[in-house]
Amino acid sequence: MRDVRLLAKGFSPAPPLAALARACPDAGGIASYTGKVRAGGVKVLELQHYEPLTLPGMEALADRAMQRFELDGVVVWHRTGHIRAGAPIVLVAAASRHRRQSIEAVDFLMDHLKSAAWFWKREKREDGWHWIEPRAVDHTDLARWKENSARV
Amino acid sequence: MRDVRLLAKGFSPAPPLAALARACPDAGGIASYTGKVRAGGVKVLELQHYEPLTLPGMEALADRAMQRFELDGVVVWHRTGHIRAGAPIVLVAAASRHRRQSIEAVDFLMDHLKSAAWFWKREKREDGWHWIEPRAVDHTDLARWKENSARV
Amino acid sequence: MSARIVFLGPLRDLVGVDDLDVPAPLDWSGLLEAVPPSVADQLKLERVNIACAGRVLSDKTALCAQDGEEVALLPPVSGG
Amino acid sequence: MSARIVFLGPLRDLVGVDDLDVPAPLDWSGLLEAVPPSVADQLKLERVNIACAGRVLSDKTALCAQDGEEVALLPPVSGG
C-alpha cells in the first residue's frame, strides 16, 4: 500500500493511520510523524507547490522508502495552500515487519520532505509574510542518508 | 503532559494521539509508534508484568525521555494479559518543538520497552506456548543510547 | 511560438506575477534577458534550479525550451 | 514470619505456581534451597535478576528479605 497525496484542505491523521494498519496486517508496527503549524507567533502558513514536480517527487520518495526500508506500506500526505496555527501540515507513516525499519523510514521521509521536496513555505507573523528556508541542521539531517546510501 | 498506562484491555491509538496533540499546542510535531501482534502464525500473545516494578519503570522511562529529548509531552501505553493477532500491544508517542527530537524519543522509548522494561512475553502457535526473549539486535539497539549518554 | 516562465516561492514575490509568456525557443541567455535583473541575479546562484517541461535541469545553462513548454524557476525549497 | 517468593515468566512455568510462602528472614542460600533445583540453576545465571520489596538488587547474593516482603524472580524480559 502506497498512499501519497497533496491536499488543498485540512485533514486529520487518524483515518489514514487506521487505513494503513488495516492494509498491512502482517506488519509488526506502524511509525508516524505529524508536523503541524506551531501556535506561537505564526498566524497562518502558506505552502506553495509546483504541480509538474511536487507530487511525482513525493511518489518517487515514497517508492525509495518502500524499497530501502522493506516497508509493507507507506503514507505521505502533505498540505498545500493556507494553513492555520495548530493544523497539520504533513503526515508520514510507515508499516514494517520490524520496528526500526518503520521508525527509520519516517525519519528518512521527513528529512527529504523538509529540504528536498518541491515546496516553498512562508509564514505570516505580526509584521507580515516571511519565506522560510531550510535551516543548516536540515541539510545535515538530509546528508545522513547520503552517507549511508552505499550500505543500503 | 505525561500519560503512562498499563492496560488489561484492548485500545485504539487514535484517541491518545489526538489527546497528545491537543495537550501540546506549541509542539511542531508528534511522532508515534504502534506495535501490534503480527497476523502470521501467532494465535494469541500473552504479556505478563510485575505490578511493583512494571508501571514505575515505565514512568521513570517516560521521565528520562521527556528530559533527554526536551519533549512537550509523551504517551506510553502498554498492554498486559492476552492479546489477539492484529491488536495493538504498545503505543508510544512524543510531542516536541523540533522534528528529530520526537522521532528519536520514540526510537529510544521502544528500544527500552522491548528489552529493558519488566514484561515477559509468550506466543501461542500451532504447537503451543513459546516464551520470547529479546533478539541480539534488540540489545544492540538498546546499547546505542548508552554509548550516546555522554552527549546528552 | 512561445514558452511560459513560471515563478515560484520568493521569486514570484520579486516579479509580482505567477508566470510570463516569452518567445520560443528560449535558451539560458534569453531567459536572463526575459526576467527582471533581480530575478536574473538569483538565477545565477547555484541554489536556484530550473525545470523545463517538468524535468529539473542538471545544467541550467543548457536550457532550450521549445514552443508550449514550461520553464519553472525553483528557489531553495522548504516543506514539512 | 514469612516472605513470599514470586515466580515470573518462564520461571513460573517451571514451578507451576504463581508464588510460594517461605519462612523469613530469607537470604540467598535460603532462596536457593526453597525453590526447585531447576529454578535454582536459573537463579545462578547472570541474566536472571531478583527484586526484594519492589527494588531490583544489584547484588542478588546480598538478598535479605524480612517478614512480609516479596522476593520476585525476574528472568530476561521481552516487551513491546
Describe this protein's structure.
The complex is a heterotetramer, with 2 copies of chain A (152 residues) and 2 copies of chain C (80 residues). Chain A has helices at 14-23, 51-68, 99-115, 136-147, and strands at 2-7, 29-36, 44-49, 71-79, 81-84, 88-96, 119-125, 128-132. With 152 residues, chain A is an alpha+beta fold. Chain C is an alpha+beta fold and 80 residues long. Chain C has a single domain (2-74), classed as Ubiquitin-like (UB roll) (Roll), CATH 3.10.20. Chain C is built from 3 helices and 7 strands; from the N terminus they run E-H-E-E-H-H-E-E-E-E. In chain C, strands 2-1-7-4-5 form a 5-stranded mixed β-sheet. Chain C has a two-stranded antiparallel ribbon with strand order 3-6. The model of chain C has no long low-confidence stretch (mean pLDDT 95). Chains B and D meet through helix 2, helix 3 and strand 7 of B and helix 1 and strand 7 of D. Strand 2 of chain A pairs antiparallel with strand 2 (29-36) of chain B. Chains C, D: It holds the Pfam family ThiS. Chains C, D: This is MoaD/ThiS family protein. Chains A, B: This is Molybdopterin synthase catalytic subunit.
How much helix is in the residues of chain C?
A: 25-40%
Assign the CATH class of chain C.
Alpha Beta
Mean pLDDT of chain C: 95
CATH-scheme architecture of chain C: Roll
- Summed up, the helix count of chain A is 4
Mean pLDDT of chain A: 92
For the report, how would you describe the main beta sheet of chain C? 5 strands, mixed
Q: Beta-strand percentage of chain C?
A: 25-35%
In CATH, the topology of chain A is named Aldehyde Oxidoreductase, domain 3
- Poorly predicted spans of chain A: none
Q: What is the distance, rounded to the nearest whole angstrom, between the alpha carbons of the first and last residues of chain A?
A: 22 Å
How are the strands of the largest sheet of chain C arranged? Answer: 2-1-7-4-5
